[in-house]
Amino acid sequence: MRRSLLVIAATATLLASAANPHFIFGGAYDFYGVGPWWQLAGAYLCLGAVVVGAVLVWRGSARRGFVLLGCELLLYLSVTAGSALRAGRGHFSNGWGGSFLSMFYIAIGLRVILLYLAHREARDARTSVVA
Description:
By secondary structure, the protein is mainly α. Helices cover 79% and strands 0% of the residues. It has one domain. Helix 1 runs antiparallel to helix 5. The chain crosses the membrane at residues 37-58, 65-85, 97-118.
């Protein structure tokens, strides 16, 4: 059951990231020019880390997946903060299509849920090896 939740949380996290215009190339920058190269590189690295982390947890390397997903959360926060600083806070909260702040919080919440599920899986894997 938890592994199904992990897949659902990973999929929702990827979709939420794609909806955050200060994370994926373009988005809020459509009106202001092309986004920086580091934004695109960070976004794809972060999305790749979500997929690899979820697969690692699913395939039994729960501890490595947990560590990778923790690092991915920090990377996501860094890329989004850098993008918001570059475009200005006004664009982040009142950009194209209305406020993106709620999408940002949803993406963070999904990442925390994914991290929690990975942690539980890693803890359960450790206890089953000890027992």
